[in-house]
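Please produce the structure of this protein holding zinc ion.
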Amino acid sequence: MLEDLGMEVQNLAAGGPPLLLGSLGRNPALPTLLFYGHYDVQPPEPLEAWSSPPFEPEVRDGRIFARGAGDNKGQFFCHLVAMEAFRSAAGGLPSVNVRVLLDGEEECGSPHLLESVRHSSDILAGVDVVVTADGPYHESGSPCVICGVRGLLYVELRCRGASRDLHSGHYGGIAPLPAWRLVQCLGSLLDGEGRVAYPGFLDSVREPGADERAALEAIPATEEEIARGLGLTSLPSGPGGGFLERVQFRPHANISGIRCGYAGEGPKTVIPCEAVAKLDIRLVPDQDPDAVFEALREHLRRSGFGDVEAVALQAVPASRTPVGHPVVRTITRAVERGWGGKPILVPSLGATLPEHVFTGELGIPSVLVPYANPDERNHAPDENLLLEAFRRGIRTSAAILAEMASYRRS
Ligand SMILES: [Zn+2]
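Below is the modeled complex.
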């Protein structure tokens, strides 16, 4: 399809499945726009929960149902259809160089993206902005232009005792107790307000700028709807500001799971030989995942938890493009024109995407413009994309192509 659009196609993957780059236009005097997306998907299971087979797209009730319809092939397809529309209706694209980058490993954290892009930095030099259509638009129906993501440090804490599980009557009081050790260790990460704040964790957190605070204030409040949707009467308050400030500008550590001993029905008197906790820690600018992890190991050493081993399973830095960047204004104008509604400017997603590869490694501004309906059911059975959202996405991609033609790097 990329070749049919007249693109030159290269595989940039330094490892893993193909990372496809399509290039159209090489005029250094023109602005260059890169659309990033991914062709891999989450597993479709449980299959019996689907109303139609996940890999046989079906249109019903004004929606396309298929795994990948929203996340991310359907959204990415909008860019290609917009380019095709320009070719057939106007004989060619507006005066802009276009790159598309299709990742095959996004759903597992894009483990080869950084290395691949690093090897190809000369090929990607000159890109003015990266635009990613992924995720859902705002609940209110308004489009969003999102300028950043939080990072992720995924850590496993492991505490081992004896070489096997033990009878808690025979050994209680004399054998090591990994479960208690792990619980104490987890507790030692918290400050007086109950948030993770071990020494070194919060040191480099960047405070929101004045323009970011203004953007936060302009975002319509959805706190009550979210609480209702979660079956809660309200969302817990906490240190670090209001709801949006906490989810966009403050780091957060969650215990994803604890594995240890016997947790089935009824009693079993056993001293488990091992206890493991999985922590997913969301990071913000300018926290360096490696430094945060080192600080955690240092804390364990200093606090007498030398018997708790910390292993980092994933480390992705946060990313931020200034909300006042001129190219953000250009994209915002394009979205308003293509979508037919004023976009909400969002400083950051709470979630994590490999944006740092563009903003950090290559120094290219990067924004997310989600095209999918909020009930797209991404990662779940009956994933779908509203046909109306699909068509609006195509118009939005076309407007981005058109507006970028007039962008001038300052
Ligand atoms: Zn996904």
